[in-house]
Amino acid sequence: MRYIFCTTISLFLYLALTAGSGTILYLWSPDELIAGALISLFVGFMSSKIIPRSVVRDIANPIKWIFASIYMIGPFFLSLLIANIEVLYRIITGRIKPAIVKVETGLKSETGTYFLSNSITLSPGTLTMAVDEDTHDLYIHCLHWDKEEGEVATPNDVSTFSYFWMKHIFG
């Protein structure tokens, strides 16, 4: 099931990205369809080995797709923009104080943890280094960390928008 789901999503994404350059329905050429099918089979095979079953089950829920899409278009894009400006500021001024912090997410869902860690990694200046599979805590490298050593890191310290949405969409 995971393999079929990952392959199908990969094929739809491929077709959406290559639309408009062919003769079949004025969207795709036969070569593109063959290449898309082969690439999707490979990507589906590789990603089905990596992505946990619970994540695929949650992603297949159409209601969660809608809310996740709203998150990606609005809050994630905004946090990405803010992170880019902050990294630019830190590079220009040289105000960098890197740290590796443990963030206790409190998320119960493997899917929420999965998407939160990926959202953090996609934002400039932060990188999710490890995930504790039992507690769903994240170990994150930050370009600049203001708190003193020993202070507890919260999800809002590294990713305010992402954490709020992941908590509400995936629990």
Q: Care to describe what's here?
A:
There is one protein chain. This protein has 2 domains: 2-51, no CATH class; 70-170, no CATH class. A 3-stranded antiparallel beta sheet has the order 1-3-2, with helices on one face. It is 61% helix and 9% strand. Helix 3 (53-59) packs across helix 6. It has 171 residues and is mainly α. A hairpin with a 6-residue loop joins strand 2 and strand 3 (138-142). The mean pLDDT is 85.
Number of strands: 3
> Main sheet, how many strands, which sense, barrel?
3 strands, antiparallel
Work out the helicity level.
55-70%
SS summary, helix count: 8
Query: From the helix content, strand content and strand pairing, which structural class follows?
Result: mainly alpha
Q: What count of domains describes the coordinates?
A: 2
N-C termini distance: 23 Å
Oligomer: single chain
Sheet with most strands: strand arrangement: 1-3-2
Shape: globular
Radius of gyration: 19 Å
What is shown here, in short?
This protein has eight helices and three strands, in the order αααααβαββαα.
Key structural traits:
171 residues; mainly alpha; 2 domains; three-stranded antiparallel β-sheet; globular
